[in-house]
Amino acid sequence: MITSLVASRNGLQSAGMRGFTLVEMIVAVGLFTVVMMISIGSLLSLLHASRKAQSIEAVVDNLNVAVDSMARAIRLGSEYHCGGGLYSVTQDCREGDSTVAFLPNGKDVSSPRTVYHYNAVLKRIERSVDSGVTWVPITASNVSITSAAFYVVGSDHSESDNVQPKVIIDIQGSAGIEGDPMASTFHVQASAVQRLLDI
C-alpha cells in the first residue's frame, strides 16, 4: 500500500501537477497585501467623507433653524437697536455689530427686549429674552462661529427716511469632527425686514 501511494505521488509530479514553491507563495501574499492596503485606504477615505458629509448636514440643519428663528423673531419685532447702549433706544449700525436688540411682537415699549449676541469667547450665538440679563446658546456645540455681525438700517422711525427697518445677519464659522484638521467652513447671510410698515 505504501508503495502504491509513493507511486501515485510520483505519477502526479511527473504529470506536471505539483504545489506552489516558497517564492510563489511570497509573491502571492505580497500582492494580496498590496491590494488589501489599497482597498482599506479607499474604505477609510469613504468613511471619512461620509462622516464629514454628516457633520456638514448637521451644521446646515442647526444653522437653518437658528437663522430662521432669528429672522422670524426680528421680522415680527420692532424698535431695533444695534450695538451697545440702551436697548430701548433705536439705533442703526451700517458698519455692523455683534449685538442686535428689538421689541418682541405684541409687547409694549416698556417690555424687556429680545437680544441676539455673538459670544466671541465661546464662539456661538446667544439669545436673551430679558434685555441681556440671561443668555441661552442657539447654535450647537459642534458649530464654531468665527465671526457674526448684525447690520441695522432704518430703525429711526423718521417719516422722511423712506427706509423700511431691516436687519442683515452675517455669520461665518466652521464645523467638523472633533480633532479633524479638515473642518468644513461656512458663510451664511440672511435679512429680515420689519413686517410692520414704517415708510
Main features:
199 residues, alpha+beta, four-stranded antiparallel beta sheet, 2 helices, 9 strands, rod-shaped
Short description, anyone?
This protein has one domain. It is built from 2 helices and 9 strands, in the order ααβββββββββ.
What would you say this structure looks like, in words?
The chain has 199 residues and is of the alpha+beta class. Helices cover 34% and strands 30% of the residues. It has one domain. The protein contains two helices and nine strands, in the order ααβββββββββ. A hairpin with a 7-residue loop joins strand 5 and strand 6. The radius of gyration is 33 Å and the shape is rod-shaped. It starts with a helix and ends in a 6-residue tail after the last strand. The model has no long low-confidence stretch (mean pLDDT 84).
Round the mean pLDDT to the nearest integer and report it.
84
> What is the total domain count?
1
Given as residue ranges, the uncertain stretches (5+ residues, pLDDT < 50) are none
The number of strands is 9
Main pleated sheet: 5 strands, antiparallel
Terminal CA distance reads 112 Å
Task: Name the structural class.
Answer: alpha+beta
Overall geometry comes to rod-shaped
Strand content: 25-35%
Helix segment tally? 2
Largest sheet: spatial strand order: 1-3-4-5-6
Radius of gyration: 33 Å
**Helix content range of the residues, please?**
25-40%
Spell the H/E element sequence.
HHEEEEEEEEE
